[in-house]
Design goal:
Blueprint lengths: L1 H6 L10 H10 L1 E5 L4 E3 L7 E7 L2 E6 L5 E7 L6 H9 L6 E4 L3 E7 H10 L1 H27 L2 H12 L5 E3 L2 H8 L3 H13 L3 E4 L2 E4 L2 H8 L8 H4 L6
Antiparallel strand pairs: 1-7, 2-6, 3-7, 4-5, 4-6, 8-10, 9-10
Helix pairs in contact: 4-5, 6-9, 7-8
Length: about 240
């Protein structure tokens, strides 16, 4: 099956036994999602382990006021650990998941994944690694929220997710969803970054113009021009 061939490109799956590969051939399901498509809803049963073959999944929560905030991303070769937790503990999914970009998934049905976990060291390693990665990312996000302002968090997101050419395909609303704020706040912050010559914006695209300047901004060593500071108070 094509899905199995795509899975074994990733290190945990190329160490599976022949028996395990045979089981996966019969049970794994491949699914393609367009950008922005919903993958999981809060309160939904997890049907299996979701392995990303290409693209990216965004796991997020929604506040009572309706504001979205990204919890973590799931990249190619990774699995959603919240879905694994639901499988092993018979829980309903506690967040929302959407495709951040056009994404291909390999879904391993829950009973099959638990069977593989019981016998295959590679699947055990995958599960432990997914858990440790999630803990690290959530701790980093919590630290980010408590120790950084919105501007630093925005700059950090741009630096982490831009391509090697300094390009990031995203909208201001998507950035607001990631940061757990409003599009208006992001628009004001982006205006400051553009005014400072740090980035260039186009419709649905951001280009980094001053990489080292952004890094200094992230570290709090440099202040970007602020629309607030531009309006100087009159002298008395």
């Amino acid at each position: 099956m094509q899905s199995l061939g795509e899975l074994v490109r990733f290190e945990p799956f190329n160490r599976l036994s022949d028996e395990a590969r045979g089981l996966l051939t019969q049970g794994v399901v491949r699914k393609s999602m367009s950008a922005g498509a919903s993958v999981m809803y809060k309160g939904q049963p997890a049907s299996g382990a979701y392995m990303v073959l290409s693209g990216r999944l965004r796991v997020f929560t929604v506040t009572p006021s309706g504001t979205e905030a990204t919890l973590y991303m799931v990249d190619p070769g990774e699995t959603c650990v919240l879905a694994l937790n639901c499988l092993f503990n018979d829980l309903l999914y506690p967040a929302w998941v959407e495709a951040e970009a056009p994404t291909s998934l390999a879904i391993i049905p829950g009973p099959l994944f638990r069977r593989l976990f019981a016998k295959e060291p590679a699947i055990q390693d995958l599960t432990v690694q997914a858990l440790s990665t999630l803990v690290y990312r959530l701790m980093a996000e919590l630290n980010d929220i408590h120790s950084s302002n919105h501007k630093q968090r925005l700059v950090r997101f741009l630096l982490m997710h831009a391509s090697s050419e300094g390009l990031l395909e995203t909208t201001q609303q998507q950035l607001a969803n990631h940061l757990g704020t409003t599009r208006e706040v992001v628009a004001r912050l982006m205006q400051d970054l553009v005014a400072g010559g740090f980035v260039k914006t186009q419709r649905g695209r951001i280009t980094i113009k001053d990489l080292f300047g952004l890094r200094r901004l992230e570290a709090g060593q440099l202040a970007a021009p602020s629309s607030v500071r531009k309006a100087k108070a009159p002298r008395r």
